[in-house]
Amino acid sequence: MRITVMTPDEQILTLEIDGDESVENLKALLEVETQVSLQSQQLLYNGKEMRNSEKLSVLGVNEGDLVMMVSNSSSTTSGSSNDLSLNPDGSAVNPAAFQQQLRRDSNTMSQLFQADPELAQVILGNDLNRLQDLLRNRQLQRAQSRRQKDEELALLYADPFDVEAQKKIEAAIRQKGIDDNWEAALEHNPEGFARVVMLYVDMEVNGVPLKAFVDSGAQSTIISKSCAERCGLLRLLDQRYKGIAHGVGQTEILGRIHVAPIKIGTIFYPCSFMVLDAPNMEFLFGLDMLRKHQCSIDLKENVLRVGGGEVSVPFLQEKDIPQHFLDEGRFLKEASSSAAQATPGSKEKSHAPTGGGAQSSGAARGGVTQGPDFEAKVAKLVELGFGREAVIQALKFFDGNEEQAAGYLFGG
């Protein structure tokens, strides 16, 4: 195993030694490396003196552990070494002295930046409490690693007919597979651990520049009330199309703006919007307009192509996206709600005003999925051999049209 030894002159040595070796043999090795006689050496591990006759493994010394080497030649040196020693919990006996000694040794700091950059940064800082917490955390990690190794060793010698032991072995094998998979991902697919930034492009809505979120998973193009007001479009809001968008959460639909100009690149296109009471989301370019204007999302070139390729606009880098847009938790909740709104029950014919009043999307959707007629259609399709849930979903999808639902189910 490999251990680290800090000498009285503040040098850090990395030594390869077997865990079954005695402390006396370790001192002999250090005598060769440091020219400090074996009799003058005193080794400390976790603040306790290591006796010559004891074995390293018995003392609990493991891979990567730190051993302090002090000299018995003078009381001054001994006092200084005590300042650099560690408590049983891994914290420094004198954290200020420990920090200053390490700071003054440029060679030690260079090695720490390579081996443990987090600890090196804390040593260069001014927070001694954080230094102590980090040292304790390192000690806890070493203790956990030792316990895990002890448990693995115990399982090797466990009774093969012990059901509980076999369950632990199975869990250990499973966890080993997970850890190996994680390490392979870190090596071969590190980008998988990075945050994925959503797709935004620069657009102009009614002459006002905006950062538009491109979402092919939302059926409707959406604009917030505050954004519509800023773009001078709120006066065109048709409140007959009020309703509730249901998804992960729910958001109120204030109405619809039937047509307004948007500018993508250098070309203007007509666009319609659902207006939502969603303060955390300004403008979402949904599937309805992506289809209408023959858009394609080119992730190889990182551009949005519009009009069959007549215009290409680049997706924004993370630094160009406003920070509040990157609050993905709240934003995606709103986006999910808007996507859920895009169901056949929300089509224009379901929103069309009847009589002298307006009909909400919620009411329209409820009318499709309730009543004896709907149950009769469900029963008829269930008799054809389809599951009830699948039938209900198909009827919802086709706005209660029995023939279209049946065609969809047979085609699936």
UniProtKB/TrEMBL annotation:
Record field: compositional bias (Low complexity): 71-87
Key words of the record: Aspartyl protease, Cytoplasm, Hydrolase, Protease
Xref: PROSITE patterns: UBA, UBIQUITIN_2
GO molecular function: aspartic-type endopeptidase activity; polyubiquitin modification-dependent protein binding
Keyword Ribosomal protein in record: no
PANTHER family per record: ASPARTYL PROTEASE DDI-RELATED, AT13091P
Protein name: DNA damage-inducible protein 1
Source organism per UniProt: Escallonia herrerae
